[in-house]
Amino acid sequence: MTAPSPSLPRSILFVCGANSIRSPIAEAIARSTLPPSTYIASVGVKDGERDPFVDVILAEKGLSLGDRKPQKWDDLADGYFDLVVTLSPEAHHAAMSATEADATAVEFWPMPDPSVVNGSRDQILEAYRDVYRRISARLQDLCQKR
Question: Which helix (H) or strand (E) holds 39?
């Protein structure tokens, strides 16, 4: 990725339905590409379970979530972020409600849910890789436009 612009947000929250797939992928990619001074977190709007396919595709890229467990928006200690990126319609509606009184920027990056894909293990993993590629491209765009 290119060198980040000084106008990048200082804090970014990624939100999806259950903090199991899309938002943890986004968090892992962002941590690997944005400056260490950028505070990055991810949550879901409801309880979730860690998805083992996420670990597989992140490992392919040399990334890891470590022992991180899915978190809910309600569990955040500090609810203010410069940018909230929502990755599902459910998350977007929740973010708009939660930030309506703030000056928080909210961006909707609609991402497909790879957990609904049926087929062989390779077909399922390809759906997860597709989400990884889409999020990577959006983060690249974020860095270039700011």
Answer: strand 39-44
